[in-house]
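Reopening this ticket.

The earlier resolution said the output was attached, but the attachment link was broken on my side. Pasting everything inline this time so it's all in one place.
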Amino acid sequence: MLSVGIPAGPDVPDAATLEAVASEVAPAPLVLQAPKEAEMAIGSQDVNGASSPLLASIPADAYGGAAPTTSGIDDVYVLEDAPNEIIDLHAAFEDAETPDEAMVYAVVENTNPSLFDSVHIDGYGGGGYGGLVLDFAADAYGSAELTVRATDADGMWVETSFMVHVEPVNDAPVISNFAGTEGPGDFWTFSGVVTDVDHNVAGMIVTFGGVLADYHVTATVQANGTFSLTDEFPGLQSGAATAQTTDPGGLQSNVAWDWVSPT
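Inline output:
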């Protein structure tokens, strides 16, 4: 309750004046958070110390209007490496006095930034709305809580939070830098590199095919991802030598190849 001293006497202000006085001394929290019509006790006091309270009603518009409201934002569920997700903020927030396009939106908290390449507000959203763009990081998975604030033209605001869940998927291993080198004689050396964002590549088996298929040879991937096979291949024909591996989850790599032409 807020008390304001009014001098005693015949000229006691009327209710309208008291409302104006009350609006001048209203505490700041009523302005910042969703204001509504309120009553304030304003008392007059005579020289003998006797007081007589008067209730003054403070209308909501004395504070510049109501704060924005929100219907909330649904939680987001996507798979790892998903395309951008765009959330319509105009649909999530509403203000009686400030148009959607004049509201100021901001992400005020993100509990797991590593889940995204970026999280930003697009005023046009690619479709004429205020879009919250979630740009997911490659090969990242996990959960994050995001809090979005909408502020109206009077500086009043409301916030809402939602969860983003990115489920992991098994990424296939990749063979690169695969090449064959001839010599001496019928000996050939085939080597390359295996990478896998989800698994330790050490111990993976590389199977050779193409013109090497009839030789039934394999190579073991080392801890640093490299593999190498040196063997004798009598009667090797010209053609594509291939290499492929499989991760512990059963997902096969690309088929790497190199054209060989024995001399």
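Reporter confirms the inline version is readable. The chain has a mean pLDDT of 82. The first helix runs from residue 15 to 25.
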